[in-house]
Amino acid sequence: MKTLMDVQELQDRMTSGAQTILLDVRWSLGDPHGHEHYRAAHIPGAVYVDMETQLCSPGGPGRGRHPLPSADTLQEAARQWGLNDGDTVVAYDDSGNLAAARLWWLLRDAGFASVSLLDGGLTAWRAAGFDVERGEERHCVGSVRLAPGHMPVVSAPDLLDGSVADVLLDARAGERFRGEQEPVDPRAGHIPGAISAPTADNLGEDRRFRPADELRRRFGALGADRGRVAVYCGSGITAAHEIAALHIAGIDASLFPGSWSQWSTTEGLPVATGA
After folding, report:
1. Is residue 270 part of a domain?
2. Are 47 and 92 in contact (CB under 8 A)?
3. I need a labelling partner for 150 at 20 to 30 A (CA). Which of 101, 113, 209, 247 fits?
4. Whether 8 and 121 share a structural domain
5. pLDDT at 192
6. Helix axes 239-248, 212-221, angle to 10 degrees
């Protein structure tokens, strides 16, 4: 299954009646009102996905703010979305898929390959003149079977001893990487040896992913086309977006799920600042 689906292809699938589970992952840091935004306007037929309760487990010091959900939590959530084995999933949000990529990564990790991101998300859908609807959408409970472990991950000890990654990309904004500001976590800076690669640079002004050749040039300039690549962000959510962009560019990468929120709250781990 290809990583991206454009809005016209989704519209054609919906018109033809092709089995498609459409999932709305409306979430952003500092905005707890994703469900309200969904109820106000979403793509027809889309089911709301709650980031905090369905795509994460409870966080804490030394674990990070958004640990990966348990296998049981993810499977139960997927069944509540109406997902069955053999379905096609299309995930989107209204922020260039910065949140929806978490769902894309989790389903791929769970062995569910038929999942794509709607390129440009709700912004592109509306720009194309397609209808939105209000309210809540629910499907019949599905019976999908999920089993995590299909996507590579790395841990803090792995990164500390340098045994699993030749290139470590930090997907946060540059000012957070440099340690100039830290709005959420207790320490400012970055993991020593990491390279700044802000997730926002994966997107064009229209919130669509940049073309594959542009992404290849971008990551090639960062050295990510040579050797083993790992990615982290603030809490492991937008790092999945970077992994999706790398995938589009033809580069496989591992996720550090706890990301900076775990690293910065673990006693004894070193922190670097500056460019």
Report:
1. no
2. no
3. 209
4. yes
5. 97
6. 110
Domain region containing 37: 4-127
Question: Which H/E stretch holds residue 89?
Answer: strand 88-92
Residue pair 170/196 in contact (Cβ under 8 Å)? The answer is yes
Domain count, the chain: 2
Does 140 map to a domain? no
Tokens coding 201 = 């640079």
233 annotated active-site? yes
Q: Is the pTM above the cut of 0.70?
A: yes
DSSP 190: B
* Cα 122 from Cα 124, distance rounded (Å): 5
pLDDT digits (tens, 9 = 90+) for 132-152: 999 999 899 999 999 999 999
Spatial CA neighbour of 6 closest among 134, 123, 137, 132: 123
Give me the sign of the Cα torsion angle 142, 145, 151, 156. Answer: positive
Residue 41, domain member (yes or no): yes
The verdict on residue 150 lying in a domain is no
